[in-house]
Write a structure and sequence with these properties.
Subcellular location: Membrane
Protein name: PAT family beta-lactamase induction signal transducer AmpG
Number of domains: 1
Helix content: over 70%
Keywords: Membrane, Transmembrane, Transmembrane helix, Transport
CATH topology: Growth Hormone, Chain: A
InterPro entries: AmpG_permease/AT-1, MFS_trans_sf
CATH architecture: Up-down Bundle
Distance between the termini: 16 Å
Shape: globular
Membrane topology: Multi-pass membrane protein
Number of helices: 22
Strand content: under 5%
CATH superfamily: MFS general substrate transporter like domains
């Protein structure tokens, strides 16, 4: 047995461990599964709300739906510790969670299709949150599996590239297809089409999964998994509705509405995690291997990260929260700006089709190639510059005459920069993870990377109304470049040697 065979969850891919192409195809499909729904609760939803006359500030608030993936560390340990009833028996821990998540994604997309008139923004928000939750759960299971199977930087490059190829191609294709269908047949048809596509990998995973030694009762295990998944999905919807009702009531009590300036609130909230980390670090650094903090199932994986990196963890967290800031800020409001320039849904759909798909895949490929051949710090710098250029492209587009070719150029530059920076960033985050806690720590780092950007993105509508679109995209590109200031420092941050016996 090799060291790789001994990793948690290894049973999920026993026959494919030595088949590089099979592994790349698997993670390409997992990326496809996760990428399909992303635009449906972000960019496509924004255009849908704009078409129904929702105020720009309120559209900005919907960016906070994307905060859910940043909170995935709250439930990621459950995916490391527990199995999905039925599915896990034949399809393994990781694949079992993937199957459950795909069912949740399909159910949420169908619900969004059936409420596509946005008559109740609360209902729209509920199903968007559920879609974000199940998409995120799928990503947690896939990321943990990827890190277990490819624990080194050299091994990560090709697997990350395959995963992102699948993710970004599905994301762009779904967004483009949804807009073209919406323009021709309405929003309900668009969401139903993507729901159908999102469920296609489900039978493929069932069919291609390696069988466990015990083959009796396979049909019963599948039925058990479907019944258990239905119950979990229903309970999750009820809990989300209850929490949403409380949150909306609290927001109304604080006077947060379409007329409110939420930017100061957001900036204050964004500072709280850094203050909390600084206060907690001395105690964490003193904790021994038998400390309750480090042995805790819920907190142990996250305490381990701060124990290993110490005060360097604060620098790392500041860097990862800034690196993708520009891309996230631009994501939600680039399409409303393009619509305001006079481009149709069909034109945006065409730009988000082949142009964005090709540019994104090339960017991912270049990023994956760079991390194999160059030091990570220098590739991080290249990725940051490429992302900033993509943001500045929207400022350039606003100054051009209405011409679909110009839209293609701006979209291509944006997607190339996003693809390159994304591939490099995923590998970088993976190298920070302790292999003892792959799912939880990667969920924490990748979630944190987008928490502050998405907090600020929710205030994007208010910011645009104050400074205008041009200044907003100059700001977002400038923030991408600001990440370069961290690179000399993070290059010197090293983890503390483990004091836990292997």
């Amino acid at each position: 047995m090799t060291a790789l065979d001994a990793l948690p969850g290894r049973i999920d891919l026993a026959p494919a461990a030595g088949l590089g192409r099979a592994r790349l195809a698997l993670f390409g499909m997992l990326g496809f599964s996760a990428g399909l729904p992303f635009y449906m609760f972000s960019t496509v939803l924004v255009l849908r709300l704009q078409a129904h006359g929702v105020a720009l500030v309120v559209i900005g608030f919907f960016a906070w739906v994307q905060l859910l993936p940043t909170l995935k560390f709250l439930w990621a340990p459950l995916l490391d510790r527990h199995d999905v009833p039925g599915f896990a028996r034949f399809w393994g821990k990781r694949r079992g969670w993937v199957l459950l998540s795909q069912l949740g994604i399909g159910a949420s997309l169908i619900a969004m299709a059936l409420t596509a008139d946005d008559a109740s923004l609360g209902v729209t928000a509920l199903f968007a949150v559920l879609l974000a939750f199940w998409t995120t759960t799928l990503e947690v299971a896939s990321d943990a599996w990827r890190i277990e199977l490819a624990p080194t930087q050299a091994a990560q490059g090709p697997v990350v590239a395959a995963n992102l190829w699948g993710y970004r191609s599905a994301m762009v294709a779904a967004g483009s297809g949804a807009l073209l269908i919406a323009d021709a047949a309405g929003w309900t048809a668009a969401y139903l089409l993507v729901a159908t596509a999102a469920l296609l990998p489900f039978p493929l995973l069932l069919a291609t999964a390696p069988e466990q030694p015990e083959t009796r009762g396979r049909g019963a295990a599948l039925l058990t998994g479907l019944v258990a998944s239905s119950g979990i999905i229903a309970v999750t919807a009820l809990v989300t509705a209850a929490v949403g009702w409380v949150v909306l009531g609290a927001a109304g009590g604080l006077g947060i509405d379409s007329e409110a300036n939420v930017t100061p609130w957001v900036l204050a909230i964004a500072m709280l995690p850094f203050i909390a980390m600084a206060l907690a670090l001395p105690r964490i650094r003193r904790a021994g291997p038998q400390s309750a903090l480090r042995r805790s199932t819920a907190l142990g994986p996250y305490v381990d990260f701060f124990w290993r990196y110490g005060f360097g963890a604060i620098v790392l967290m500041g860097f990862v929260s800034l690196y993708r800031m520009g891309d996230v800020l631009a994501l939600n409001l680039s399409k409303p700006m393009i619509r305001d320039l006079g481009y149709t849904l069909a034109a945006i759909g065409r730009a988000d089709g082949l142009v964005a798909l090709a540019a994104s895949m090339v960017g991912v490929a270049v990023g994956g190639w760079l991390v194999i051949r160059r030091p990570l710090v220098s590739t991080l710098a290249i990725g940051a510059v490429a992302a900033a250029v993509g943001n500045f492209g929207f400022v350039w587009l606003a100054g051009q005459p209405l011409d679909e070719a110009m839209l293609y150029i701006a979209t291509g530059a944006d997607q190339f920069g996003n693809g390159m920076a994304g591939a490099i960033f995923v590998v970088y985050l993976s190298t920070l993870v302790n292999p003892r806690f792959p799912g939880a720590q990667y969920a924490f780092l990748s979630g944190w990377a987008f928490m502050l950007p998405r907090l600020l993105s929710g205030a994007g509508g208010s910011i645009v109304e104050t400074i205008g679109y041009d200044s907003f995209f100059l700001l977002s590109g400038g923030l991408s470049l600001a990440a370069l200031l961290f690179l000399p420092v993070i290059a010197r941050v090293r983890p503390r040697p483990s004091d836990v016996a292997a």
